[in-house]
Specification:
17 helices; Globin-like; about 375 residues; Arc Repressor Mutant, subunit A; 6-stranded mixed β-sheet
Length: about 375
């Protein structure tokens, strides 16, 4: 028995060692599978979680390997909070429970695969650890139910509750969104822009805006939905948002809110450290980087010949080609943008023509190169779970 316990401990130690790698690998998979379980698209499913998926996974794995499953139901824990926020956001508990159970099964499978590679750990020991994960998964459902029941009891008359419920309904495409919008003073055909911001900035923006804003708190940020005047761009919010860290999606019908949020997220990735960024300003980069399979296909079609060029030279040539395409081949403008002499631009373009078999004279090739090079310049926009 002692030997078996020692083997179980060895399995637990292995999971501690690989925890961070396991969590990183699992997070994106769980979001996608949870979205499938509830009928949501993966991109939309990413926005439904009011807690950090990786943080929740870490806490779950730790509770299992430490043999301390009781803390899963800690009243102040992340899983109780998950249930409470989902209740306030209008997520059906059955959907939440289904998502948790899907996540539990996927985690179970990955842990099983990991433990099979541990020397000296037998099948019975693996099964014992897996039983803990199965038990832990059901405790997460229990904890979420506790939080859900508490969150659902929040008074409906409270304005903060109404706008929070509206935010959740908009994200989930819930049928209650229209009625909730009316209760908040919005028209049935309201146009909104999604805003990703910090909890502190969200409070200030809600206070300073002349409109009623729907909101949805998440683990590290808050999503706001701000009404936009008909036929206006989201950039009309610039005076209100100046001085706040925000990423803003385009103006859309309120029932398409999640699309605005997806584009706000992509703009945030592209803009990097910019304090205030609008998807409307980055639409070219967003459009060009929307499908990584297309981009990789175009890269193989046109740029494989550059793979043998030293990296520093390849980077220089691709930067020159991108500017040359943007500037319609106007050498002085390209040279000014790159800070080099026009003759240097000519030398680089001639070399590129040799490498690309003179295909730069084909207008279709030039258009496709502009797409792939623009996408390659904003790789962060591909980092969507």
């Amino acid at each position: 028995m002692a030997a078996m316990d020692q083997q179980v401990m060895r399995a637990a130690d292995r999971l501690r060692e690989v925890r961070d790698e396991l969590v990183e690998e699992l997070a994106a998979i769980l979001i996608e599978r949870a979205g499938e379980a509830t009928g949501s698209l993966p991109l939309a499913a990413r926005h439904h979680w009011p807690t950090d998926v990786q943080d929740a996974l870490r806490r779950f794995v730790d509770a299992v390997v430490d043999e301390d499953l009781a803390r899963v139901c800690d009243p102040g824990g992340v899983f109780v909070a998950l249930g409470a926020e989902c209740a306030r956001g209008g997520v059906a508990f059955d959907d939440l429970a289904a998502s948790i159970r899907v996540a539990s099964r996927v985690t179970h499978k990955h842990v099983h695969r990991e433990l099979l590679s541990v020397p000296g750990v037998g099948l019975d020991d693996v099964l014992e650890v897996l039983d803990r994960f199965a038990e832990g998964g059901e405790l997460v459902v229990k904890a979420a139910r506790i939080g859900y029941e508490g969150g659902a009891r929040q008074p409906e008359s409270d304005e903060d509750s109404r706008t929070r419920r509206l935010g959740g309904a908009l994200l989930h495409g819930d049928a209650s969104a229209v009625a909730l919008a009316r209760a908040c003073g919005w028209d049935d055909d309201a146009v909104i822009a999604a805003i990703i911001t910090t909890p502190q900035d969200a409070a200030t923006i809600r206070r300073e805006s002349e409109c009623v804003l729907a909101h949805y708190p998440r683990a590290r940020d808050v999503v706001l939905f701000h009404p936009i005047a008909e036929d206006k761009l989201a950039t009309t919010l610039r005076p209100l948002l100046a001085g706040h860290r925000c990423a803003v999606g385009p103006a859309v019908h309120m029932l398409d809110s999640v699309r605005s949020l997806d584009l706000a997220y992509r703009a945030q990735l592209i803009a990097g450290d910019e304090e205030l960024t609008f998807a409307d300003v980055h639409m070219l980069e967003i459009a060009c980087s929307a499908d990584r399979v297309v981009i990789e296909s175009l890269r193989r079609t046109y740029l494989d010949e550059l793979d043998d060029v030293p990296e520093d030279q390849r980077t220089m040539l691709l930067q020159t080609l991108l500017e040359w395409l943007r500037q319609w081949g106007h050498r002085p403008s390209v040279a000014e943008a790159l800070g080099v002499h026009p003759q240097t631009v000519s030398h680089r373009i001639n070399r590129l023509k040799d490498l690309l078999s003179d295909e730069l004279d084909d207008p279709v090739v030039r258009a496709e190169l502009l797409v792939v090079l623009t996408a390659m310049s904003v790789r962060r926009a591909w980092q969507v779970p």
